[in-house]
Protein 1
Amino acid sequence: MQRIYYLSLEFYMGRTLQNTMVNLALQNACDEATYQLGLDMEELQEIEEDAGLGNGGLGRLAACFLDSMATLGLAAYGYGIRYEFGIFNQKICGGWQLEEADDWLRYGNPWEKARPEYMIPVHFYGRIQHDHDGVKWVDTQVVLALPYDTPVPGYRNNTVNTMRLWSARAPNEFNLKDFNVGGYIQAVLDRNLAENISRVLYPNDNFFEGKELRLKQEYFVVAATLQDIIRRFKSSKFGSRDPVRTSFDAFPDKVAIQLNDTHPSLTIPELMRVLVDIEKLDWDKVRPCMVEMFRGPYPAPRRRVNSPEICLLGFLGQQKEIHFATEDTCPWINMAHVDIVGSHVVNGVARIHSKIYYYKWRHSLLLLLFKDFYEFEPHKFQNKTNGITPRRWLVLCNPGLAEIIAERIGEDYISDLDQLKKLLAFVEDEGFIRDIAKVKQENKLKFSAYLEKEYKVKINPNSLFDIQVKRIHEYKRQLLNCLHIITFYNRIKKEPNKHFVPRTIMIGGKAAPGYHMAKMIIKLITSIGDIVNNDPVIGDRLKVIFLENYRVSLAEKVVPAADLSEQISTAGTEASGTGNMKFMLNGALTIGTMDGANVEMAEEAGEENFFIFGMRVEDVDELDRKGYCAKDYYDHIPELKQAIDQMSSGFFSPKQPDLFKDIVNMLMYHDRFKVFADYEAYIKCQEKVSALYKNTKEWTKKVIKNIATSGKFSSDRTIAQYAREIWGVEPTRQKIPAPDDPRE
């Protein structure tokens, strides 16, 4: 049997209780039991802390993948770090983001089990020693990796996989030499230095942090995991911890390792080191083993090459140099190059993403570097469009919608989401249209009540809920949304007696603590809200709300209530997106650019059922060639000029008129993401949204078409493709017998 190992520096799991009840079919029984005890299940669920061990999309994707791997009966393990402090809690004070430590383990974690019997030493620092026995790594600092296991149940198939997270512990002899010179207290305090490795998640999304601690975290998870993989491979007898296997011939057939982004890239050199230096395999033996396991058939250099930074690729009768390191005085290692050479497959996460990375290298230096790899070995590059688990992102978060779908097409769609296509037969069904609209309205009322209780804001539940929730980043263009809000506000002020379709615009997301522009964007959103929400002329026709501390458990409340999903990144910048899929599955319509998975979502639903606007990737390339001049748009579009002038004059910050000068300056002179270039198309597209929303029936028909065509975006489909096309295993929906089932 082949085992799958999914390595990720982030697993954004959220809460576990309800998800476990859904997957084990225990929800009704647990509801009844808590009722009998005089408890309320919903209150109980709200007490659980989110396991916020991720920043955003990458960490949440890993969590969805674990659910799908268990549901598809794969022998798969998730490996990561048990951060003591996850993604910070966001507080908004005076319109500014403040960060609070996320002490999620304060009251313990009932879902995990410490496994000290599998504790593993990880080495840092030290030096290399050559002797007659070969190469030794000596005088190292040792940190112990203590594993904590969390069960990952599949959907009603009696399969339970494991997520193993490593916690750093200092060995008892840590800094022992200091004990003997009277430094006992300091030596004990210094144990923290070792244990800091798993202390905190780096809070950056789509941003590289060149810090020693981050590098230590990456090596820590890689080194511990590889030792664990090899131990398990050697123990061939069920339940045995004694090493039994001595030959590694079968290793590539028994082990598949998937790296989530470049963060665990050190897996590749570390596995080479372990096999040669620890397991004493010949390099000539290791090379084909690596080639088969990672199937990287690049002509690998001998173990000790003259220049370890260069790999010579032979193709087209030529030799081509691919550099792993820069030639600076302080060289940088290009981990993407290490990954490509050391892996048997490299995949993008949406069709456009894969295409941009591997085919469209014309105008990008980064992509030009990948061109040589692609030309040498095109079959190495694949696409695996991301997906989301329908268990958490429909059954758990939107039971009303899940139920009315099941009434029409049965419950099998929950583990075979393509079956949603059967709903196309109900697009004209008056009863179904009514039911879909009713569930959406109920979700909106519930979310309105939550906002009133938690944030003390009262909103109009009959307004269009226009929602953009994701990390705050210039490329995601929350600023474009802000410009629409200001334009909409100005139009109401200009014609106060005209009928406008009322909107509640909600924006949520965290900014990396050191990302000045992102924090300024949050302040701008809250400042616009202060003006708009308190203007009596506007009334309840427009409300602007910043959703504080956006996280998995808040997403589970906001996604089912959304009417409009904002996916407005500059074309060519969002790898895939997965929030877009959650909104589509839950009955929101999308306003978006042709970026990431939006392209495939529009293709599935039909472009006529999507609000597509703005530049395509080719247009962005063309604009780069010509030169983007924001001032041209500012000079020629009066409403845009008015909005920018209001921002720069202090209209939204009367006590500090120059507060937003950095934002205005960036938009006018340094905007890499070309906000103004898409402004006009975005405003026109928003007008189409308002026009359609007036016609509830036609709007709801489009909603049904979107739900019915969202099946492709199940992470079950994604994982089935990984399994068949990369890992070489066959997924199954077969239910294995429960432990208490009578055996034949």
Protein 2
Amino acid sequence: MLRLRAICPFSWRVFQFRPFSFEPLLNQMNKCTDEEQIFDLIEKNKDILSEKQVACALSMLWQFQKQKSILLKNVECIRDHPQFLTLHNLTTTKMEFMNDSTLVNVLYIIQQFGFEAHDPLVEALVTEAWRRLERFDINVLSKFSSCLADQHLCFSPLMGKIADIVNRNLETIQDLRCLSVLMVSISSLISQRFQEQLVNKTEQLFDTIDSSQVNIARRIVQFLRNIKYSYYPLLERCNKVFLSNVNHLDLDSISKILSLYHSLQFHSFEFILMTKKRLTEMIPLFDYPASFVKLFVTLGPVAGPEEEKQLKSTILLMSEELTSQQALAVMGAMEEMESRNSRLIKKIASILHKHLDNYKPVELLRITQASIFLHFQSKELFVKLRELLLSYLKVSVIPSEISLLICALSMLPSPHLDEARISQIEAVLPQCDLNDLNSFATSVLRCIQYDHMYRNNIPGKQLKLLQKLDHYGRQRLQKCSSLNLLWEEVKSLKGDWFADSLLEETVVTLQRLMDEINYINVAGIASFISRTNYLSTSLLDRIASVVLQQIEKIHPFAILAIILPFSALNYDPPQRDEFFGTCLQRLNSYLSILDPLMLVFLGYSLATREYFSEDLLKAIFNIRFLAKLDSQLEHFECILDKRKNPLPYGSHNTTLGKLPKIHSELNTQIAGSRLPPGAEKIALEFLDSRAFCRNIPHLKGKSAMKKRHLEILGYRVIQIPHFEWNSMALSTKNARMDYLRERIFGEGKSSS
């Protein structure tokens, strides 16, 4: 022993005095229960840490964060710890020795701790990963692509390289989880042909995942949203995954899925019904703004009256704690809910006003739109908005940004375009697409209308600008050589200028390109024709021909949109019976799962063409279907006895705007129940502006159909138009009470 000490005095001295444990350091790290224990190990062993131990320490720190609730997360505190800086520096020196999987995982964790793309360590990790890119397996490649996407590098050459690798190896990829991550990451860079290949590959691999893989299904839907492709077969399969796991979906997941569905215009009655119940159960669970705002935004637009009341009262209580972005989200949701809660509107508007300097141009437009729609009047807010919009406008050179700024300005009180603004618009017209041109024209028309009504003058320069907008719009249509490119620009166009100036030219362009109509775009083109009410027999005949030739590729969910223009425009194609019969045959196996309202509209559309399907009629006229439709209609219900006194059914009181409280409950709970002799069921429905034609107060078909349906179920239906309820005549509480007594009970005015 003494001889050994004499031979190796240095080694013995190191062994004798260094802090050590007989247990390997990795095992010690894995047994740590909090961050301080990890940091303690780092401090004691920083001179001897290997690349594996550095990676393990980072991984453990991130695991501790993931296990905490939102309120308990302390990412900034951990990131600023002296020993985290030690780890940061060690990672820089050790990264080249890390294997591929460890390298990318470390990059992911560093980003989760809030390090930006310009941080030297992040840059070094990305560079090292790029150097190894070709040898990455599919799992590592997918995680790396996700890291780049988080850095907003979706359009970078590096992401392009990843897209190329995926393209070259697509046939050999068998892991849909990894592929779905890659699809979302590279979706901004790939061609239409590559998009179709990825969709086909996804369909092939879909059956390899089990029904619990919600995240995979959500990424597939996100990919479809990114490439703007409402591919119903995949959407339907993903929707089944969501439905089978709905009881396990958290608020984040439900919010994301509904947002994606909205973007894709995909409507699942069953999913909305089930998630509405799930979200309602969450109302008492959230008492901090970040999550409750998300709940408000997600549930609010589909909430019943009682849930809506709870949401509004709670958000009002926590309004002082809202950030600028949370207040903006709440205001947008209130606009969608058509809220008339003046107290909440005023409170949220005051928060927006306080943070107005921090909003981007598109956010200022959203604030302007919501304020006008919700009838919020504040001279101070509008003055500040105008100042900010003009300041942005003076330095803006991007056509789309200029158009939205001009749009917001035109919505404010006393809109006016000076010569500088007109010149700015004229300068960018050659770069504008049809959406920009339509936005400019709508704004100019608002200003012209104001000048005509209040200044008794229409500046000639504004009229000349309108003529230039017409010219550039027609020119763009005449030069268009691709139906898909045309469709991207015209599918959302609306308003007087488009209808008066460009609609005819648009239809001529569609006729010129109609050989490109196929199973992918046929439903969209049909919807456009229905919306514009423009009868083009050649286009409708082409639509019918595509349906007959490619019906197996057309999803049943698209059938109503295809049939609608033939019904709305009172036109039969040459092969009328074969066309309608083919559509119905494609739809038959889906009759039991279609949205109830969609099914009713389908029956109505076919009836207008004097085409009656026995299977469709059986699907509509049965008790189970009527119950589903009844649950979707929801309006408000009360029951009166023969003396016109409300009967005390249920425990819920519902209000309509500021309507008096009536003992009532949702009609789904008591519809079909036996009533006392002489009693009657009353359904009350508030009709907003969307229930009427744009130019005259004529009730549209949807609300008329609801009324007929409820009358069949035995209700006396009272429909209250928004233009009556919001009129000056009903500006006081007493006036509204008298109005309701007259409508519901047939009584005269109150003496109070």
Protein 3
Amino acid sequence: MRLIHIKLGCILACAFLSLTWFTAHNGNDGDEPPNHPVMIQLYERLLAAEFKGELLSRELSSVLTSLRNLTIPNNSSSTNIPEGPIKRNLSLLSSRLPNAHLYLPHLRDHPDSLIPNVVLGQGRTGVSLVLGIPTVKRQKQSYLVSTLNSLLYDLSPSERNDTVIIIFVAETDAEYVNSVAELLEKNFPKDVHSGLLEVVSPSQYFYPNFSRLRETFGDSKERVKWRTKQNLDYSFLMLYAEEKGTYYVQLEDDIVANPGYSQTMKTYVRKLATDDWMFLEFSQLGFIGKMFRASDLPMIAEFFLMFYKDKPIDWLLDHILWVKACNPEKDAKDCNLQKGLLKLRYKPSLFQHVGLHSSLPGKLQKLKDKDFGKVPLFTTHTNPPAELSSSLKHYQQHTLERAYNGQDFFWGLTPTAKDFLLLSFPQPHTVTRYLFRSGNIENNGDHFYNTTVEVLPSDSSVRDRLVGGQSPQYKGSYGGFIVIGCFVDGVAEGQIDAQMQPISALRLLVQSDSDMWVLLSEVRCVCVCV
């Protein structure tokens, strides 16, 4: 391959020298296009040779990458990539970026160094929205679970099926990577199983030797290393995400999302009057909330990799805009105007930065997006009259009564087994549906876990009929109650069997001790009242 490159170089050089000699001897100063027939012929041959050379170079790079892939040793670091559909759909990132080894020459010694290690995932593709979240081991507090809780909080079933959230664990410590995967499997089993959540990490050979970096812009050696690694992390994640869906949104692991963010972004894109944008901004802070077309990701990642050692990621993104839009012969005002046409801003912001401790050790990050606005912490409904009681002690003014009446959310201290919340109706009511949503945008980890929803029929014979016998339809609970549902991912929702109507009470019963407080942000009882 190197010989072919040399040959092509010689051909191009000879053609160029011939054209230069001919131009010089025929009175053309080089600023004018060739007008002599021989010159025109040489010029066209030069352009054709240049084009064919570039095309052949890319094809040969792709072939070489494929050959390297075929000769990956059995004991390589990629052996823990799962078999089946994921491995079949997983290509080398270098095939999407043939020039990767030019920018990262240290990878040439490890042919499989650009194969992502998919720790969790079902290989989901073809979605509208891909959310990318890089995360690293933090010395202080980790915000990852809270961030995912916020993103998943009110996604509808159809939105969950049309989204992939990629958590890129930007570490080469296998033990730590696996601990993150286990944490997410524990907290989001349904979303991991469905393919909504993926956990990916890089090869142990992906990162270069950071000790040789040049210190620039007055940044310390640690800060230069941090921002350089961050550029590589974003690039790796973008290249992996490219084939997943239509739009890619860059996020961070310490944010909260505005309710309805998914549908809001899709609607905004659909209603844009122009397609001549490079990215959309759904937050004004740094790299948070930037939406790209997935098809543009290889070009963007390649630009980042060209200059990954030189500047921070948000500066590099601005430089791409400069290259694409700005005329060097015009002033900065015109340049900013042209760049503004390629990046469109949505308000109010859909994502807010909440992490106090940066991933850069010792750095406190207090920046807040002023356009984020105030997010509702509870949802109001009109519920039938009821007498309310609970074994849980509430925090400050956040009582069950205020939550039931749509004035606040309920916030209770750490529950133990057999703790309860009871809604008793003075007169039996026909309650057709129920909804209990735990957690809110600021405290989405305060969920009800292992908690059942139970009803008390006003007619005690109903319980005997539905619970007793050889083929019981429901499970009974103490005090004459019947178990009709439970909390799944922080939400309990369902219909109440007509056979049980009317009912005298609804109860939430905690089945096991919890480590977290509990918060009810929505209580709804749909009643057919006369």
Protein 4
Amino acid sequence: MASILVLILTIILTFISANAAELETYIVHLDSSKGQHFIQKQDRQNWYHSFLPRTTSGANEEQPAMVFAYRNVLNGFAAKLSAEHVKAMESMEGFLYARPQRVYMKHTTHTPNFLGLHQNLGFWAGSNYGKGVIIGVLDTGTTPNHPSFNDKGVPPPPAKWKGKCEIAGCNNKLIGIRDFTTGENGTQFDQDGHGTHTSSTAAGNFVNDASVLGNAKGTAVGMAPLAHVAMYKVCTLLDCPESAIIAGLDAAVEDGVDVLSISLGLDPNPFYLDGIAVGAFTAIQKGIFVACSAGNSGPSNSTLANDAPWILTVGASTLDRKIVASVSLGNKDVLDGESIFQPKDFPETYLPLVYPGSNGDKNMSLCMEGSLDHVDVKGKVVVCDRGINGRIEKGQVVKDAGGAAMILLNQVEEGDSTLADVHVLPASHVGYKEGVAIKTYISSTASPTATLLFPGTVVGVDSAPAVTSFSSRGPSLQSPGILKPDIIGPGVSVLAAWPVSLENNTQTSSTFNIMSGTSMSCPHLAGIAALLKASHPDWSPATIKSAIMTSADQVSLNGKPIEDERELGASIFAVGSGHVNPSKANNPGLVFDIEPDDYIPYLCGLGYTSQQVGIIVKKTVSCSKTIPEGQLNYPSYAMTLASGENKTYSRTVTNVGEADSTYTISVPDVVVPDGIVVVVHNSTLKFTQVNQRLTYDLTFRRSNSVEINVPYGEGAMAWRSGKYLVRTPFVIKFV
């Protein structure tokens, strides 16, 4: 009998132990203004300990335990707690909120690691970090002597380099600086910051201990840290004249750059009237790869620029890092937003919360200049809607009116797309859902209150990459038969070099800033192209572009399809071929190459005259031969199909993988929308040598018996051979 009782007791204890509340480390934020005065360190410790629950559980249950008691960076502590313990704390005076800690990791300014580029490992090391490749950047100038442009480990430029440095400060890293503006107040240096940021994103050297206002700490480094940089200043503080841009392109081609990064754009024109498109064509004729930003006019369709097919058109995606600034409402809801400015002395006491636009005044809701002059916001947390005027400008309006802090709310079209900005006052930029919750809370009580909390840098956001709301979308207006954008890459809250210190606006030796835009994603892809050029010197611009596109990722870190931050599945007009994966691009298996003259019948097919085509290709041509857009040997497809219609296109692929290899395509490798049938006429490609070329035909058929009630359908097909997967997406406009 005794043995039976022991067995029963053991089972009970095991059950209790297994079901005991699991403890994890929480960060507990307290309001020290609640009558607490700490004369000695122990007084603070005692107050912190007073929040730990007194448990009477058995010895087998893990007890709450203090992990860290903070004194400077925040008022509060870290402790091993259960959710039930935290719940018990919520009624205690002085408690603000508690959250499970985030698991941090060692990181750089982060986009290299996020893209799978690790120092001394894999493709990054194998490409010699872009050593020997010259990246030309057309922008606002740059900042010589910035640590990001140190030339440690960088050899002298190759003998082909013909450029020059018009100001002091060049070295083996920064090998050229030329100014094509009127001098901008007599200086050739970067007074805007944009060019310093983009050029260091593409090819900045390693700089330890970089941060912005103490956030995003790590090693700042560009995509191709040992590549050379040549800056062509084509923009003033006010604008970027097309004449200067063309002059910059002209010089870059002559100087001998290998890659061009152009984070500039305008509403699209026919290619022969577009200075960037024309100049870029000359560049690819000379074997120079050209990457351009898609633009920041999203989320509407057909808003992108730089859509010529010989340009890599780059959209913007998020990183897995956020600079968190949280909104704590009087109802104890805590909503995460973002801000670079993270004041350590902002009171955690709840302040009055006001939304000036609650009366329906649009200017007040947007916190436009002068709109708050006669509104009592002094000492309050002020809610502003995003739109029209600048995000930082809204904060200045609030600050000038006496507001203590700002909460910036997204509109529905911006979804979850928040940005970390250097605000002029304590602020948090929150998503649309969070904004709705804040406005609902304000309308639910006569005395709404809120405060801001500043957890700082968080890494590991598994919804990344996602397409940010501002990234311009396709379809292309100038050539709708070419799918654009081509690719997306990191363009949100990117840390890179900056001409001046953000703390005091004076130049110091090591200054950085965080910026967002397709201007930031473009130099990422330019730098990656430089790595590929270093790894494969014989690859043409079209080959590099194809390798990037056909190897692109389709899922985010959580394993789910890439999403739009508007809380939608990302459309093909937002992501193009997908998110760049540098290591996969280095070994794509098959590529779709295009010779410069192959564009001539394509351009003629757009309806351009021989003269107009000649402007682009720089020679006399005859438009006696034309091809439809879909027949260009592009690594994607875009077309229109009427009911019952079918179209057949051919593609030629070049084997850059294993010599003896067989590629096949089967039914699971072809994803089609309803009402569409795709037929691959030769579904097996057998190669016997590297650089061998084979051609296949592909027919798209639209059924006349299936009703289709959407304007577009999208899909993809993929060739497989062992470790290789060569994916080409397509989109069909139903007419």
